Amino acid sequence: MKNLRSFTIYILIAVMIVTYFVPCASALDDPEAECKAAIITDIASGQILYSKNPYDRLYPASLTKIVTAMVVIDAINSGDVSLSDTVEFSENAFFDIGKDISTYKFQAGERVKLEDLLYCIIMTSANEPCNALAEHVSGSVEAFVRKMNDRVAGLGCNMTNYGNTHGLPSELNYTTAYDQSIIIADAMDDQLFSKIAATETYKISATAFAEERELTSSNNLIRSASSYYYEYVQGGKTGYTNAAGFCLSSIAQRGEMRLACVVLGAESVIQDSGKPLIKSFSETRRLYRWAFNNFNYRSIVSTLDLLKEIPVELGEGTGTVVLRPEKNIIALTSNDVDISQVQYNIRIYSDEGAEPLTAPVSAGDVLGEAEVTLAGVNYGKVKLVANSSVALDRNKYIGREIKNTLNNVYVKLAIFIIIAIFILYIAFIMIYNIRRKQDKEQADKLARERIEEIRAKERQLNSGKTFEEIERRHAREESAAATRKPRK
Which domain covers residue 338, as residue numbers? Predict the structure, then answer.
């Protein structure tokens, strides 16, 4: 027992030493694609899940034929040509294609249905049908190639250019893994292209030059009998030249996840069993498995999340409203990402305006927006809406209106004028009363002086006379006064 305990202790010490000195691996291991360039993207969002040299300029080989086919399909969709058209091979159709790489030995003068030629170039990378289709659609290979370049430019693929229709080596033919992921996603959204790209076998009708020919898809990922078969692949396009290596653009879907994968410049190696391993297939399948096993769609933003409380002028109660996202955001994230660490860069519209947010506010009103990031990935913006309604507080409203009215410059001027008039009126009344009092006092003084004069004169007249004499004088004066009164 003692020896067992000692052994256990030694094991624990060894584990601790290893844990201390060995660096921790990342939660999500890099798949390290064995090729010159590779990319795997989520088609719905355009999010890059993995990439290796995604913007390096490389030869596209027969991935060129994806765009060749799409320019023809565009002409079909616009009504310029039809699947049932008969395409005749001219002598010029073979001008840049050596006889040794003529896939199905088509000959000048041979007439083949347009639909059959589309199957030839998408399924098996036949070269000579590309020029024949170009002449049928555009009149010349040169004009058709211009349409090819215009089409990829319209997709925003600025690092892609074509100098021919088939992808055989040319300095004018170049692309990137990133551009090819956009191109294959666009092509596979077309019903006709995706149907052909998912076809394992197809028979070309007999012509005057050849018996019925059977095609087998060069994309081993969709061939159920192939050792490379991967059940989730919906279709794609292969390519190979010595200069480009083995190339493959494809689409796969498992559940809700729909991914685009591009592998450029892969090799073919001999296995211990003596069989070749074409790594454009094996690496594509490995990248898909890695992505499907390590990524899932998860809700990183919910309409139930309460993100920010902001003030509401004149609002009842607390006078605030809480903001929440207008919609959920479901994003493809790696399984090791902690979605609780989502970050919001919040922008409140009222903070940028001249006026603050004012009641009433209704639940659902858009009041701002938030930019959402998680683990360094930007998931775009979401509108922020009021989680509840905020009614107008009438008392606050009236108080504000009074305050605003009193702060109005014209109202202030009117009040000043009224006060000034009132003050002037009071001053006028005061001055009027003072003057009236002074006039009254002056009149009273004059009256008193007049009375004194009369009394003094009376005393002078009555001096030394008897009472009877005074009475007789008064009677004479009254009689004289009565005589002087005018008659009515």
Answer: 302-399
